[in-house]
Design goal:
globular; Rossmann fold; 7-stranded mixed sheet; alpha/beta
Length: 216
């Protein structure tokens, strides 16, 4: 009964926050991975969304820690990096409550995160499976069309890009993008010298993720 009460309170709180705010935060985690990677990525994505799809996102994303209650102030969390990720039991509980009460987490593998992230997601939701989203999922067509699914932005191992999800009640609550490197495509043009068309695809896919998170 206690857990149910906490869950209901968090759900109501989240509903109220969603009605009055559109904010994104960067998720800071432990384990040695560079959670701070791609510093220009989110500001550029926010500007693209505000300019092109009518969002009113706050220009400078805040940084929040996994175990902090402040994550409930942000309907959308973004997580990236190259290396190890470790969640404590308290952080797992906090993040689980956040996601089950209406939050959304996008994890973008900047290359090297996958084995650590998948391990921690299994701890986060031991009774749920990461499932690959098909190219017909609405996240690939709600604003911009990606008929082949997740676009390939940077080449690493020659593997195809994949989008995996944890869903509840037919709504994606956790999205893990792998072998795509969307965040690199969101960064300033001079960081990776990506062609304009590739950066455009990355930003458009990011806009689709934002649209999905705030409208579903």
């Amino acid at each position: 009964m206690k857990n149910l009460t906490i869950y209901l309170i968090l759900t109501i709180t989240f509903t109220c926050l969603n009605l009055r705010s559109q904010e994104i935060a960067i998720l800071k985690y432990q384990g040695g991975g560079d959670w701070y990677a791609n510093p220009t990525a989110l500001p550029n994505l926010i500007k693209f969304c505000n300019d092109n799809i009518g969002t009113t996102l706050i220009n400078k994303p805040k940084t929040v820690e996994v175990g902090s209650s402040s994550i409930f102030q942000y309907p959308f969390l973004h997580m990236t990096g190259h290396g190890n990720v470790v969640f404590s039991d308290q952080e797992l509980e906090n993040l689980r409550n956040y996601l089950l009460s209406g939050g959304f987490l996008h994890i973008d593998d900047n290359y090297g995160m996958k084995p650590y992230v998948t391990r921690e997601i299994k701890r986060l939701f031991p009774d749920m499976e990461l499932e690959e989203l098909g190219a017909d999922h609405q996240i690939f067509k709600n604003t911009y069309s990606f008929p082949k699914g997740l676009p390939k932005i940077h080449e690493h191992d020659g593997q195809r890009p994949q989008a995996f999800a944890i869903s509840k009640n037919n709504r994606v609550i956790l999205l893990f993008t792998s072998e795509s490197d969307l965040g690199d495509g969101w960064e300033d043009p001079t960081v990776h010298n990506d062609p304009a068309e590739l950066r455009k695809k990355a930003l458009q896919m990011g806009a689709n993720i934002i649209t999905y998170a705030f409208k579903n």
